[in-house]
Design goal:
heterodimer; A: alpha/beta; 8-stranded parallel β-sheet; 16 strands; globular; B: alpha/beta; Rossmann fold; 6-stranded mixed β-sheet; 26% strand
């Protein structure tokens, strides 16, 4: 198992061929960390990551998957009092991915935001569990995915507010854009609420690009194909705003634009 | 010199005939006011010219400089010189206004515009329609006020410089000052490019600024009366009933869809209990 302390801005590359497969990371109390993790290589891989965000610490974590074979990521987060955690997963590679996420909000005032952007040509699975064990905690889970031809995307998003978590707020929004009739998208939003005086909401939408939006873009001379690419790219781009680093934003933006163009012309 | 020619146009939506034989010719340098009660086919005509897939042409022809418009895809119609400023511009979350406008400008050029040139052009155009430059970085029409959406349509018209421009109730949602700004921009472009125009509006104030050269009245899917700007003024004063009587046509009542109740949710039902 590899153990790391996160502070400041850090970039990691994990190679699927040589990874130890197990990581334990923590952000010390009152510290702030921005972390970009890129998974590279061409081997099937399963990775377990446990991340602890201590009291009053801040973490912004962006993962980018470039692995060319199947990836399974099992991640578990433990969030302590008044901490702030933003997690973003950019899943734009062609290979299969399953992300099993468990977010445990253990103490009061902790704030969690989860964002995923996925472009599916094979299969992507997101199984996300968020548990509020303490009051006045907040969680927002936002999933944006595009399922291209013959792709399958499965999202199960569960949020649980346990007893004794007064004032907790948990919100989830999952949206899948299906490219054509061969694209399969599934979303299962679930809320388990075991306390009163809380806020909880879920939203899920699944469907093909809006014909009226496409028509509007096309009336300005933009071809159907390019209009489709604009809409899909716009769907995925918000993930680039997670990390405040110009080079990473530029690279990720270019990656999204390129892969959407490739995917739409297949 | 552009000529848009519509002959004996019949259009249906979901099997229901909306346009019942429309004839209209619009040339460069002409401003045509298209008037008529709501729900009688004005917007249908404009959307059909621009190729909206919902509208099925069952008979007739539309040509632009002799080219068959009905054979063109929507984007080809734009590239051929047609432009519609929509009554309800679409909101497109995720796509920034500047990315959209750049894509639209590039679609009309052989070589993509240089970024610096585009920024300069956009800044100038935004200033001319008196819009804040921040609007370029917002998502297309998302969260825009009614007036901002309409000004954004005019920005697109100014950037694309069409040969035939169609304005579908552009003035609705604009306050008095905004109507003046928008009208000034339209007239400036009209003088600069000598474009032909079809304007759908209910208000003489807008026509007062633009001063149409031709006026057409559409009732029940047909153009039943034609004239010059004087006819526009007469309609503003007297309405459409006299035309319907004189031409012996029935004004189509705009279909009002019934409100469908989804019922009350359990939480509300509980809170309403006495």
């Amino acid at each position: 198992m590899k153990e790391l302390t996160l502070t400041g801005f850090q970039e990691f590359i994990i190679n699927s061929a040589s990874t130890e497969g197990e990581y334990r990371l923590h952000v010390p109390a009152n510290e702030s960390a921005s972390v970009v993790v890129t998974l590279e290589g061409n081997k099937e891989v399963e990775i377990d990551i446990k991340i602890i965000v201590e009291e009053n610490a801040q973490l912004r974590l962006l993962t980018i998957n470039h692995n060319e074979d199947k990836s399974i990521l099992n991640e578990e987060f433990e969030l302590f009092a008044d901490s702030s955690t933003t997690i973003a997963h950019a899943e734009l590679n062609k290979a299969q991915t399953t992300i099993n996420s468990v977010h445990k909000i253990l103490q009061q005032g902790a704030n969690l935001q989860v964002n995923t952007a996925s472009l599916t040509t094979t299969q992507k699975n997101f199984y996300q569990d968020t548990f509020h064990y303490a009051g006045n905690s907040k969680a927002h889970v936002n999933n944006y995915g595009v399922v291209l031809a013959n792709g399958i995307c499965d999202m199960v998003v569960r949020s649980t507010i346990e007893k004794g978590s007064h004032g907790a707020a948990t919100h989830q929004s999952s949206r899948l854009l299906t490219y054509d009739k061969t694209s399969i998208g599934k979303i299962l939003p679930v809320l388990y609420i075991y306390d009163n005086d809380v806020q909880a909401s879920h939203a899920a939408s699944l469907g093909q690009p809006d014909d009226e939006q496409l028509y509007y873009l096309e009336t300005r001379g933009i071809s159907h194909q390019e209009a489709l690419q604009l809409l899909i790219t716009g769907y995925l781009l918000p993930i680039t705003r997670i990390i405040d680093d110009e080079k990473i934003v530029e690279a990720l933006t270019l990656e999204i634009e390129t892969k959407v163009a490739e995917g739409c012309s297949m | 010199m552009a000529t848009l020619e519509i002959k004996d146009l019949h259009v249906s939506i979901d099997g229901k005939e909306i346009l019942k034989g429309v004839n209209l010719t619009v040339k460069s340098g002409e401003i045509h006011a298209l008037m008529g009660p709501n729900g009688n086919g004005k917007s249908t005509l404009l959307m059909t010219i621009m190729g909206h897939p919902r509208y099925e042409v069952t008979q007739g022809s539309i040509t632009l400089d002799g080219q068959d418009v009905l054979e063109m895809s929507v984007d080809e119609r734009s590239k051929a010189g047609l432009f519609i400023a929509m009554q309800y511009p679409q909101e497109v979350p995720g796509v920034t206004n500047s990315d959209f406008l750049k894509a639209a400008v590039n679609a009309h050029r052989e070589e993509p515009i240089k970024l610096f040139d585009f920024i300069r052009l956009l800044d100038k155009t935004l200033a001319e329609v008196q819009m804040d430059s921040s609007v370029a970085h917002r998502f297309l029409n998302e969260g825009f006020s009614g007036g901002e959406k309409k000004r954004n349509e005019i920005i697109q018209m100014k950037l694309l410089k069409p040969s035939i421009t169609m304005l579908d109730e552009l003035d609705s949602g604009l306050d008095v000052d905004a109507i003046k700004v928008v009208s000034d921009n339209i007239l400036e472009q009209f003088k600069e490019t000598n474009m032909g125009m079809i304007i759908v509006s209910h208000y003489d104030r807008f026509y007062g600024y633009i001063e149409p050269t031709h006026t057409h009245v559409m009732i029940d899917g047909q153009i039943v009366m034609e004239g010059d700007y004087e006819l526009t003024k007469k309609i503003d004063a007297q309405g459409y009933e006299w035309i319907a009587r004189e031409k012996n046509v029935a004004i189509t009542e705009k279909e009002v869809k019934p409100t469908v109740s989804l019922g009350s949710c359990a939480a509300n039902m509980g809170s309403n209990k006495q």
